[in-house]
């Protein structure tokens, strides 16, 4: 059989095409690997393409060379080099075959690498998410903690009760504003001087009891005691406290809440006093009413008999005198118990006080007493009441003060208003003051510290009754310097009270 | 093993009366046999590649399907060349005589026309290997395209 061009053309063109395609394939494989350098399969493809390219080049060159040499009559040369090109061909497709056989393993390795990479990415994503969640939670918890700390701090700072934190030896570690106000010391001073609870609880019996409770039970609950302030005055307080063994590395501390019950106690005492005086007033009113009529009859008959005295004139006059004294006492009792009738109208306190001072200035008992007023009474200090009764109360207070200074001291009469717009009249003296035990009884009827025969003990109680009827109050206290001070507080008269038509009778 | 026994064995081997044949002579067919084994090995690796692509599920990707077709064409090419080499190099029942630049003659030992025709077509082996390389290039092109799309989507483009 004779063949011609097709074999030659196919051989030469095919060889050229193989070389071109091999090079292009190698180029594509390299591009592929450049996109993902870690991909083992793409590396494998480079190897296999390289093998194909070597195979294609060696084979094609050998074929072209053979055709050329044979056609140019140099078959002998081809005969010499043919084995070499054949061997190179063999090696090249052996190389391709060897590389190909590793494809399966390459793929598995690549799968494992991809799987590990995916796991790593998943883990990384989870870690990132956890980290973000953790960060978010930290932010949230921090905000909550800050808010909680802020609330706790506000409660501590703005509490109206004293909150005190002490070390195990009861020395102050922290104290709030109310505590600073209660103690009267500066906070820095208390901390610098290492002041402690023992510096404020100075009543030995109570002190011992409270600290014994703290040592044994490590807490105290609503223990009432006196609390010494910086100005050496006492306030009545209620102490509650307990131990805190601490957390987060904090040491053992004691926390105390100290409640100032001074005002409450005083108010309770005042209420008790008012109740007692009200009861006494009721009793006195009943007694006075029952005695008043017989006294009137006795006085009437006595005065009738004095028209024809006979031998008993002196006796009858003695009876008349004592009956009149009894009538005065009964009248005072009725005044105290509010059973009398009084005409009420707007009155000027300044005028009343000035009248009383000028009136008593002429009294023999006040000759050696210095009665002063801080300045001219600036008004108008008007109250709604009865001028004679108010003057009577002030006179009683000044007479008491005169006796307290034993007629040779100093009496100060002040007028003014307080922050609740109450009109205040204060009578101060530098006398002996009031004994502590007498405070609860000084407004009681018939209670007196004067010698027998010098006082009926009705002056303050009558004054108390009058002032209460005026809607006011009267209080007594000992002055820091010396002596006592009585303060009358009355509601200030408003514009409506100035109308004269508003006069009324109580 | 004790040194005395080793020395005894060594002496025994040395003392054998046969000639040393460590380097043997290769006959003229050794080259073609090696070449044929190379083709068989190449064929076998292409079969393995086809199965691997199938087994690993790569057939779902167009690129790998094309590479599988490449492997198939190379299998045919190897069969073609194996047969051709068998006829002309191994058993030498056929040869080509170049008559001119445009004419060749397929000469068979038995003047078999059929064998000549078969050999003629077997010589056109580029009809297998060139398409194989074309499919390989197409397959790589497809894989490159897929990979670029994957990279772009991963980059959020």
Helix coverage percent of chain A: 55-70%
CATH fold field value of the largest domain in chain A: Heat Shock Protein 90
- Helix proportion of residues of chain B, in percent? 55-70%
DSSP summary: helix tally of chain B: 5
Secondary-structure-based class of chain A equals alpha+beta
How are strands sequenced across the largest beta sheet of chain B?
1-2
The largest inter-chain interface, given as chain pair and residues per side, is: A-B, 47 and 48 residues
- In round numbers, the mean pLDDT of chain A is 84
- Uncertain runs of chain A: none
How many angstroms separate the termini of chain B? 71 Å
Secondary-structure element string of chain A? EHHHHEEHHHEEEHHEHEEHEEHEEE
Indicate the CATH architecture of the largest domain in chain A: 2-Layer Sandwich
CATH class of the largest domain in chain A: Alpha Beta
Bin the strand percentage of chain B. Answer: 5-15%
Structural class of chain B: mainly alpha
Largest sheet data of chain B: 2 strands, antiparallel
The largest beta-sheet of chain A arranges its strands as 3-2-6-5-4
The low-confidence parts of chain B are none
How would you describe this structure to a colleague?
The complex is a heterodimer of chains A (506) and B (157). Chain A has a 5-stranded antiparallel beta sheet with strand order 3-2-6-5-4, sandwiched between helices. Chain A has helices spanning 5-35, 40-71, 75-101, 103-158, 177-183, 187-192, 204-217, 262-307, 313-336, 349-361, 387-404, 459-469, and strands spanning 2-4, 162-166, 172-175, 219-228, 234-244, 253-260, 343-348, 370-372, 382-385, 410-417, 422-429, 473-478, 484-491, 504-505. Chain A has 12 helices and 14 strands. With 157 residues, chain B is mainly alpha-helical. Chain B has one domain (30-151). Chain B is built from 5 helices and 2 strands, in the order αααββαα. Chain B is flat, with a radius of gyration of 26 Å. The N and C termini of chain B lie far apart (71 Å). The model of chain B has no long low-confidence stretch (mean pLDDT 82). Classes of the chains: A alpha+beta (506), B mainly alpha (157). At the A-B interface, strand 1, helix 1, helix 2, helix 3 and helix 4 of A face helix 2, strand 2, helix 4 and helix 5 of B. Strand 1 (2-4) of chain A pairs antiparallel with strand 2 (103-108) of chain B, so a sheet runs across the interface.
């Amino acid at each position: 059989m004779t063949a011609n061009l097709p074999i030659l053309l196919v051989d030469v063109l095919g060889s050229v095409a193989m070389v071109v395609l091999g090079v292009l394939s190698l180029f594509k494989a390299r591009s592929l690997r450049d996109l993902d350098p870690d991909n083992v399969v793409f590396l494998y493809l480079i190897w296999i393409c390289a093998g194909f390219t070597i195979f294609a080049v060696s084979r094609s060159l050998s074929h072209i060379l053979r055709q050329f040499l044979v056609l140019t009559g140099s078959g002998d040369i081809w005969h010499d080099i043919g084995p070499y090109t054949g061997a190179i061909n063999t090696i090249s497709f052996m190389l391709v075959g060897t590389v190909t056989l590793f494809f399966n393993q390459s793929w598995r390795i690549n799968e494992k690498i991809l799987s590990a990479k995916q796991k790593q990415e998943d883990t990384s994503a989870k870690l990132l998410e956890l980290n973000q969640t953790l960060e978010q939670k930290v932010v949230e918890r921090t905000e909550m903690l800050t808010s909680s700390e802020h609330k706790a701090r506000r409660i501590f700072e703005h509490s109206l009760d004293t909150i005190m934190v002490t070390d195990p030896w009861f020395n102050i570690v922290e104290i709030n504003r109310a505590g600073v106000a209660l103690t009267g010391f500066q906070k820095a001073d208390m901390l610098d001087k290492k002041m402690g609870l023992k510096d404020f609880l100075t009543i030995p019996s109570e002190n011992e009891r409270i600290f014994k409770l703290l040592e044994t039970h490590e807490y105290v609950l609503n223990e009432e005691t006196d609390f010494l302030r910086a100005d050496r005055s006492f306030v009545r307080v209620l102490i509650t406290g307990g131990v805190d063994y601490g957390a987060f590395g904090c040491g053992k501390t004691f926390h105390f809440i100290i409640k100032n019950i001074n005002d409450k106690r005083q108010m309770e005492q005042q209420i008790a006093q008012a109740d007692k005086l009200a009861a006494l007033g009721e009793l006195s009113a009943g007694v006075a009413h029952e005695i008043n009529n017989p006294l009137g009859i006795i006085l009437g008959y006595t005065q009738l008999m004095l028209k024809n005295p006979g031998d008993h004139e002196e006796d009858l006059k003695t009876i008349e005198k004592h009956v009149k004294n009894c009538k005065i006492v009964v009248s005072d009792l009725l005044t105290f118990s509010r059973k009398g009738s009084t005409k009420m109208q707007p009155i000027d306190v300044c005028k009343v006080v000035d009248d009383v001072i000028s009136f008593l200035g002429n009294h023999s008992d006040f000759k050696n007493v210095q009665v002063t007023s801080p300045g001219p009474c600036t008004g108008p200090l008007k109250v709604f009441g009865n001028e004679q009764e108010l003057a009577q109360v002030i006179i009683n207070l000044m007479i008491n003060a005169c006796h307290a200074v034993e007629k040779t001291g100093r009496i100060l009469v002040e007028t003014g208003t307080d922050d609740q717009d109450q009109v205040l009249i204060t009578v101060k003296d530098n006398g002996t003051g009031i004994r502590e035990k007498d405070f609860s009884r000084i407004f009681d009827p018939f209670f007196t510290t004067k010698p027998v025969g010098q006082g009926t003990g009705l002056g303050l109680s009558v004054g108390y009754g009058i002032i209460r009827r005026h809607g006011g109050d009267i209080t007594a206290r000992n002055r820091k310097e010396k002596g006592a001070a009585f303060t009358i507080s009355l509601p200030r008269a408003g514009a409506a009270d100035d109308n004269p038509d508003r006069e009324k009778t109580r | 093993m004790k040194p005395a026994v080793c020395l005894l064995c060594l002496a025994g081997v040395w003392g054998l009366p046969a000639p040393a044949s460590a380097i043997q002579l290769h006959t003229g067919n050794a080259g073609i046999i090696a070449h044929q084994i190379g083709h068989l090995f190449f064929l076998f690796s292409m079969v393995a590649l086809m199965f691997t692509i199938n087994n690993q599920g790569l057939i779902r990707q167009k690129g790998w399907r094309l590479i599988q077709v490449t492997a198939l064409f190379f299998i045919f090419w190897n069969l073609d060349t194996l047969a051709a080499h068998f006829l002309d190099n191994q058993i030498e029942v056929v040869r080509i005589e170049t008559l001119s630049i445009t004419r060749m003659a397929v000469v068979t030992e038995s003047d078999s026309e059929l064998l000549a025709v078969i050999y003629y077509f077997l010589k056109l082996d580029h009809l297998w290997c060139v398409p194989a390389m074309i499919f390989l290039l197409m397959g790589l092109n497809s894989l490159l395209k897929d990979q670029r799309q994957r990279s772009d989507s991963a980059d959020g483009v």
